[in-house]
Amino acid sequence: MRRLIAALGKTIGDRLPMQFRVLHRQFLLRVIDLEALSIEADIPRFLGQFAGVLIMISFLHAFAVYVAIVQYPWRLEHYLISTMMLVAGLVTVVGWDAIFPDRRDIMVLAPLPIRPTVILIAKVCASATLLGIAILALNTAPALVASLLLGGLHTTAFGFFQVLAAYAIAMLAATLFLYCTVLTVQGIAALLLPRKAFLVFSSILQLGAFALFVSVYFLEPALGTVPELLAPSSRPVLAVSPQFWFTCVFNQLNGTLPPELSWLAIRAWIALSAVVLGAAVSLLLSYLRTMKKTIEAPDLVPGASGLHFTPRRGGLRTAIALFSLRSILRSRQHRVALAFFLAIVFAIGLTCLRRELFTPGHEPVPSDFLISTLMMLSLTVFGLRAVFALPISLKANWLLQLTQLRPTAKYIAATRTTLFAFAAAPVLIVTALLALNYRPWQHIAAHILMLALFGLLFVELALVRFDKVPFTCSWMPGKANVQVIFWGAVFIWIIFGALAGMYEHSALHHPSQFVIMAAVLLAFTAATASYNRARARTATLDFEDQAPELITTLGLLVIPEPRADDISKSKMG
Question: Which of 52, 68, 292, 479 is 20 to 30 Å from 83 by CA-CA measure?
């Protein structure tokens, strides 16, 4: 079977034009900015690890389908489609600018006899390939399980194949709708705006899309039964929710859609046709315009005029903090990476705010609030730590290598201050604002104090073996096992957050427990800080992420037997 698929793929690939095949491969491997990578980066392995994460999630979805598909079919179908649209949205936003040619593409490809339409099709197909990998990795297992369970309920003999086809078409349509919606918005913006204005608007829109996709996923109501969907109060939500549209598309293709909900399936097909046509037309027109304007109009650079505030005191700590802040504000790839974590933090904060808004009066501090704010703090700190590992440019790398005039411990101390100021401190302020409806004030103040201690601990843990200046060390994807790190971090994060939140909720009502918890956190923080400071005194800053040099042998080493003359010489010596 594997040989048949490989032979079929080779046959199809040989029929495609050579220009398209070469460009498609290059654009597909450039999903990550090349300037951020180490010279030994393994991009295919990196992408394969993320596909492995999606495959593991698909097996969890398959188990959920096996347990609940018969009893709660609509709720589970809506959840699967919502998850697929979230993944498709995040993949699309991560490759936000992958559709449009940058200056490097124009400088290399413009002198060659390649038509702009070939470049456009190659870029679109490269992005679509990533989405196709996500669809297959995330939906293969639940599709088979759902087809086996729901197919047996059909009266026809082809029930399995009908459910499988309906599932595949619904997932493909939902993904295509979201992908083409983003392309339509980008194409219209590139067509109407000047190049510099488009770059500014595109970066803002990119961050907004991250927050929108994650917020809708977490905040959208779960209507799990047909009576709930048919209720008049649900109609406004159904009218504006593409997730429910394509859930109805699946049931329409499966033959289980009530006639009262057919208008949602019709709306889905109309919306899909509109965005596909809009994406094709707007991208084609804007592409012909962008190819000419990319060389003429410069990319975003710091303005020569305007207000530029630079503190004259603070030394190295202020310099590292300003460099980090301006790197995040000016670099697209760092904003995207940070927005992934902040979008989840934003969604958790909205969940807490929604509960607070719908509470009629003051209430005691619940354990859910303690767990949520602790998770927000951990995500922000470790998310910013992950962004710190990505370089801003090669110029910053070499500049700091040539100008390192102080000991490494000073640079790590400046990174520690920056991480606490940009990650932990904002979460403390947001927590204080979200807790305005809770009483008594003593519990709120105690929780903020406990969060500050957790913030100090998380910052020290984030700096373990981080001998780098933020945004200056090249990155080598594929070096770590993404599957193990992802699932280990998720399980540890959930278990730790739940246990710490419940223990703190009990400690707020018992001062002795609160003192013990604070003392334990201070002890762990002091121990970790002592280790980091001791290591920083002898460490050297890293500017290039490289794999360790290993020598692999086959065990074929033969040790020659000593000769007689060598033995006699050794005795004489």
Answer: 479
